[in-house]
């Protein structure tokens, strides 16, 4: 059965690999599974056909036979459960990888994503500077703990796992910022993720969509 995922027809990230379908593309590339991509417009994302797959009108979704999933973390976990390469065989190591998946999405990502939104939508508000400062303080607290835990290791818990995949995609929103630059081991960690052949293939596929949309 062919796997089909959805992605933005015109991604707001302008081809930087930040849209959440990137996580699913990368996971599928890591495990060597082919997939099709159905591009959806912002209008189509709010229509009944898409809402039947994703009740909040977002991307990505995942379809395989009679299975339909949404939420990028859940999809990556499903891919890791079905195919070797993202979750360890050892039960304890597998549980730790799952812990890092939750940590990436529930602990580290929220203030990083909120900062990205504030920089776009709240820049002209009177509370902008105070809001941005509070978010950056929160981000640094998360990164302090993450940096200490990673230390000089390549990955969070031995071999590369779905936990690293999600964590790298979260940290990519800080790439090139003073915040991430203050944590050399995390900057190097992100660079290792980007250097993986599966990441490069996924990034090229997502960039091609943006390039095609820009020239159409």
UniProtKB/TrEMBL annotation:
SUPFAM superfamilies per record: GST C-terminal domain-like, Thioredoxin-like
InterPro entries given in the database record: Glutathione-S-Trfase_C-like (IPR010987), Glutathione-S-Trfase_C_sf (IPR036282), Glutathione_S-Trfase (IPR040079), Glutathione_S-Trfase_N (IPR004045), Thioredoxin-like_sf (IPR036249)
Protein name listed in UniProt: Glutathione S-transferase family protein
Ranges where the GST C-terminal domain occurs: 90-215
Pfam families from the UniProt entry: GST_N
Residue ranges occupied by any GST N-terminal domain in the UniProt entry: 8-87
UniProt key word Transferase: yes
Originating species: Rhizobium sophorae
């Amino acid at each position: 059965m062919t796997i089909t995922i959805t992605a933005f027809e015109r991604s707001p990230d302008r081809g930087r690999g930040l849209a959440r379908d990137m996580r699913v593309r990368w996971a599928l590339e890591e495990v060597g599974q082919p997939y099709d991509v159905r591009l959806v417009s912002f209008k189509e994302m709010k229509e009944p056909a898409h809402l039947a797959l994703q009740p909040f009108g977002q991307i990505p979704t995942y379809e395989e036979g009679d299975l339909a999933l949404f939420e990028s973390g859940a999809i990556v976990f499903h891919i890791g459960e079905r195919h070797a390469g993202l979750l360890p065989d050892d039960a304890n190591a597998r549980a730790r990888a799952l812990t890092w998946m939750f940590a990436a999405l529930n602990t580290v990502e929220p203030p990083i994503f909120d900062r990205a939104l504030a920089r776009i939508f709240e820049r002209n508000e009177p509370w902008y500077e105070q809001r941005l400062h509070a978010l950056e303080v929160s981000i640094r607290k998360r990164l302090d703990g993450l940096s200490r835990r990673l230390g000089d290791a390549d990955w969070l818990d031995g071999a590369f796992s779905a936990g690293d995949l999600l964590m790298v995609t979260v940290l990519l929103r800080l790439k090139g910022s003073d915040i991430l630059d203050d944590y050399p081991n995390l900057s190097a960690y992100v660079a290792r993720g980007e250097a993986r052949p599966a990441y490069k293939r996924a990034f090229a596929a997502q960039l091609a969509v943006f390039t095609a949309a820009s020239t159409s």
